[in-house]
Structures are given as C-alpha cells and as structure tokens.
Design a protein that fits this description.
2 domains, 358 residues, mainly alpha, 14 helices
C-alpha cells in the first residue's frame, strides 16, 4: 500500500485474468450469503475463501518473475526442514509435538494436506532436474535427495489423495520428458506406474494398509454389509450432496446452509451415517453452496491455467503450468482442497509464480 508505484501495480492486477477469476470465485461465495439462512456458517466459509481475494492479488503484485528459481528454492528448503523434523519424530529421536505422531510424523499439518504438498514438491524437484538447463550441480544433489526423502515420507503417512497425486506426478513427468505424441512413452508408462505401485505396496505397510482398506470398504459398501466406513461415508456424502444439488441446481442452498440442508437429507437417506459439513469433494461442496454459478467460477480458474499452459512456448513453465491444475483437479474429488486448507495457500503461491500475463 505504501509502494511508490501502487497505481501501476493496481492497473496490472485489474488486467490480469487469473486475478479477476480468483476475485470472482471469492465474491460468488459472498453473493451466496444473500439466500442463506445460516449467516454465521456462511461467514466462516467466506473467511476461508478470503485467500482468493487477498493473497493471490498481493503475491501477484510483489513477486518478481526473474526470481522464480529463488522462490522455488526457498519453498523446497522449507520442505526439507519439515522433512528432517518428520524423520526425527518418525524414528523417535525427538518427542511427538503439535500434529506429529508416528503414522503422521509431520508437525505442521495432517496427512490430508501434507501428502499433496509432498506430491507437488516431488514434481518440482524432479522437473527442475530434468528441464532447468541452468541448474547447478549442488541443486541437482539437493533436489534429488529431497525427492527421495519426500517419496519415502509419502508412503509412511496415510493420505490417499497424496498417493494418487504421487502417481499422477510420475505419469506427467514421464510424458513431458519423453513427449506427448510418442506412443512408446505411453506404453512404457503402463509398465512404470504399476511397478512403482507394486513396489510401494510391498515395501510400505501404511500404503499396503490403505489400499486394502479402500478395497475392503468399497466392497462392503456396495454389497450392503457395512456402509459406515471411511470410504462408505464418503460415498454417502457424495450421494446425499447430489440429492441436495438436484433441488438447488442454479444457485445452490446458500454459502452457509450446506450443514443444515445436508443434515435434513441425511436423516432421510442415511440416518445411521454421521452427518457432515463437508462432502470431501470440492466440486460437490461448491455446487451445493452456490450452484452452477459457483462451479463455473471454480472451473474457469483451471480452464484459464490449462489454456495458459498450452499457449506457453517456454517448456519449463509450460510443464509446471499444466501439472498444477491437473493435480488439483484430481485431488479435489477426494476433499475440498481449496477450502481454507494449507493446500489453498500452496495453490495460490504457485499460481502467483507461474501464470503471469506480463
């Protein structure tokens, strides 16, 4: 606000499409307060979404594109510090603290948020090694070490969305490095991904447990034997949310009324399943709250990012610009990762670095 070139910065901001789309996404939730009955919960949701109104424009304004590699380095150093602490907790060298425990040794956040952090950070490390022609030997060593550390951490924690993102990361890197149009790269990929999956399944007790739990819970749900499991609850959340959306397609139930409206449907459809305030699906939550209007405002951000990536000539930026929306578009089926999570800040931080019109 005290910058001598504030007017110039504001002019650039109002001309940047991603900033505009981000602000629109926020104000759709503000608009949803007009037809909500639970204003208190609605304001909580609006506060969670305020990062799109505040953080993205600020970062767009202050970040300098020439320092791209420096910002990435600092981010990865911060991940390295968290990784070291996580290993100290995991091997019981230091006591558990904050959110850290043996099956989730990360003190700063739960596995739900941290595993996507790991997947995206692994992508950045390996991408910089493969595509940054000016990278130093020291950074290659550091990024390689960090990628190995984070890959191991990925499978000693329990975040399923992060596990899926991990395989997406390797698929993207493989195709980007060997070429989108080469059939042999896709054939090789069909061998590589199953091998990585098999190795993780055999070597990681946590990954083995989560895969078996997912298969067992899904089979119990669809056989009708047991629905109140982790996977069963998420399926019920989705089905009930779809019922809620059917009656409120255009504008949704309002920014604050999802918990109340869901509770009413849950009592009818699935009284034995606990109610929820979040269907663990970003698309369903946004659509339930603000209707098609909200969903379009969300999807438009990713359409812009993908379109930006397609038009970009610089291979390094093009690849990262394409990877970020793809990863988020997938993991948002398993949780509301742009609803006030740490992953919201990560998305905004990386978006402010990558998608710049000037």
């Amino acid at each position: 606000m005290i910058s001598p070139n504030l007017k110039e910065r504001l002019t650039k901001l109002v001309k940047d499409r991603l900033v505009i789309l981000s602000v629109i996404f926020f104000f759709v939730h503000v608009l949803g307060l007009l037809w909500t009955e639970d204003i208190e919960w609605g304001l909580i949701i609006v506060r969670k979404m305020a990062k799109f109104l505040i953080f993205l424009p600020i970062l767009f304004s202050v970040i300098r594109l020439k320092d791209f590699s420096f910002y990435i380095l600092i981010f990865l150093i911060s991940m390295f510090i968290v990784e070291v602490v996580s290993y100290l907790v995991y091997f019981e060298i230091i006591d558990k603290f904050l959110k850290a425990r043996i099956d989730n040794p990360t003190p700063t956040m739960s596995h739900i948020s941290f595993n996507p952090f790991l997947a995206i950070s692994i992508y950045i490390c390996l991408h910089e090694i493969l595509f940054n022609k000016l990278i130093s030997k020291e950074r290659i060593i550091f990024y390689s070490l960090l990628a190995i550390m984070m890959s191991i951490t990925m499978f000693i924690t329990e975040g399923r969305a992060g596990h899926i993102a991990f395989f997406i990361v390797f698929g993207l890197l493989f195709i980007q490095y060997f070429g989108f149009k080469k059939i042999r790269s896709y054939l090789a990929l069909t061998i590589l991904i199953p091998l990585i999956f098999y190795g993780a399944y055999e070597l990681s007790p946590n990954f083995n447990k989560r895969v078996n739990e997912t298969i067992k819970n899904a089979s119990l749900f669809y056989s009708g034997e047991l629905k109140n499991t982790s996977i069963g609850q998420r399926i019920v959340f989705s089905l009930n949310s779809l019922d809620l959306i059917k009656d409120n397609v255009m504008l949704g139930v309002g920014t604050g009324d999802y918990p109340r409206e869901y509770l009413a449907i849950n009592k009818i459809n699935s009284p034995n399943i606990p109610p929820t305030v979040n269907p663990h699906n970003m698309y369903l939550l946004v659509t339930a709250q603000t209707g098609i209007l909200g969903l379009l405002s969300l999807i438009s951000i990713f359409i812009y990012q993908i379109n930006y990536a397609i038009k970009k000539s610089d291979e390094r930026y093009k690849n990262i610009a394409l990877a970020l929306p793809i990863i988020y578009l997938v993991i948002m089926f398993s949780d509301s990762y742009l609803l006030g999570h740490f992953t919201t800040v990560l998305f905004i931080f990386l978006s402010s670095l990558i998608y710049r019109q000037n």
